[in-house]
UniProtKB/TrEMBL annotation:
Protein name: Endonuclease/exonuclease/phosphatase domain-containing protein
Membrane spanning stretches: none
Family annotation (InterPro entries): Endo/exonu/phosph_ase_sf, Endo/exonuclease/phosphatase
Endonuclease/exonuclease/phosphatase domain boundaries: 8-210
Origin species: Acanthoscelides obtectus (Bean weevil)
Listed SUPFAM superfamilies: DNase I-like
Residues spanning the signal sequence: none
GO MF annotations, alphabetized: catalytic activity
Length: 345
């Protein structure tokens, strides 16, 4: 049996303000699953006011104005609610959809622009880890307020998260266009790009300053598609935390200082920390491993990471030759004393 599900992900920026237009668009375009961010709904607003015929609606609202996420699922599609969580760093709603004996773990998310990026991915990591085990594929959609068209600290952390779960981020064009900017902040992450048979970015009659993402999920009976893999690689966000915080602090200083930190980050990557972690991961998964030995190995490697971190804090860059060279070259430049102390010791 062939089955292709039509999905729509959209930052609607108040569902009530343009609801009739949105409702007409969803019906006319035969959308199967609709994920909305920034619904601006609150618990005191009844779902009957945003009802779409032949759809079930699931909401996760803020208690205050703004934010909020929701799913609309067409009648006849089996689904269940997995999880919802509204925090200051990430608003998320998870459901599982079952078609042709396949289970798809779906998330619609919204990260407020001022929210801490690292904390956001910590929360998302916990959710994906806990919810993906009983599903075949994962699809995470929504407004992350991370522009993937530029290479900065936020996009680096996003890429780290994607690599940790072997996810692919498919959006490559602007999803929000204003008079002075074009950004790609409404993203689509999937555990297997093979299940996506096409997508497009569309304007839904001026409802929002965001564009909608329409994509198709192949739910036909094919047995050879790559399924969701978890823990194939270590989740490195925790290990990168000190460096991410360092980058954040350094970005507040001078341009040349930011250049040094960028070189330092490149040098850290050159140390192949991820490869080392993956090698350790494979070793820990080996046969005939005793619990005491595994705990000892983990503690030893954790100590090594802490040692590298302390080296950077103390200004000891002997393990980071490129960073050391850049600092020496820039020693004659004048920096804010706060940052000078933190780097030079």
């Amino acid at each position: 049996m062939s089955r292709r599900l039509k999905f729509m992900s959209f930052n609607v920026r108040s569902i009530q303000s343009g609801f009739l237009t949105l409702k007409e668009y969803v019906v006319d375009c035969a959308v199967d699953v609709l994920g909305l961010s920034e619904t601006w709904l609150t618990p005191d607003i009844d779902s009957s006011s945003v009802f779409i015929n032949d759809f079930n609606v699931v909401r996760a609202d803020r208690n205050s104005r703004g934010g909020g996420v929701a799913f609309y699922v067409r009648n006849g599609i089996a689904f269940k609610i997995l999880h919802s969580n509204i925090t200051a760093v990430l608003e998320e709603l998870w459901i599982s959809v079952k078609v042709n004996q396949r289970k798809y773990c779906l998330a619609i998310v919204y990260r407020p622009p001022s929210a801490n990026v690292l904390d956001c991915f910590h929360q998302l990591t916990e959710s994906l880890t806990n919810l993906s085990l009983d599903n075949d594929y994962a699809v995470v959609m929504g407004d992350f307020n991370i522009n993937v068209l530029v290479n900065d600290g936020r996009s680096e952390m996003l890429n780290c998260f994607l690599e940790s779960f072997d996810l692919s981020q498919l959006v490559k064009e602007p999803t929000r266009i204003t008079s002075n900017s074009q950004t790609a902040i409404d993203l689509l992450m999937v555990s297997s790009a093979d299940i996506i048979s096409g997508y497009e970015v569309v304007d839904v009659d001026g409802i929002s300053d965001h564009l909608a993402l329409i994509f198709y999920v192949d739910a036909s009976e094919i047995s050879n598609l790559c399924k969701l893999r978890t823990y194939r690689k270590f989740v490195l966000l925790e290990n990168y935390a000190p460096y991410a915080k360092l980058v954040t602090e350094m970005n507040r200083s001078t341009r040349s200082l930011r250049s040094i930190v960028k070189q330092g980050y490149i040098e850290i990557k050159k140390l192949r920390m991820q490869e080392k972690l993956n090698e350790r991961n494979l070793q820990l998964q080996g046969r005939e491993k005793e619990l005491a030995e595994i705990i000892s190995d983990i503690k030893a490697f954790t100590k090594k990471l802490e040692f590298w971190e302390q080296n950077l804090i103390d200004g000891d860059t002997r393990h980071f030759p490129v960073l050391s060279e850049k600092i020496s070259q820039s020693a004659s430049e004048t920096y804010d004393s706060k940052y000078h102390v933190e780097i030079e010791g």
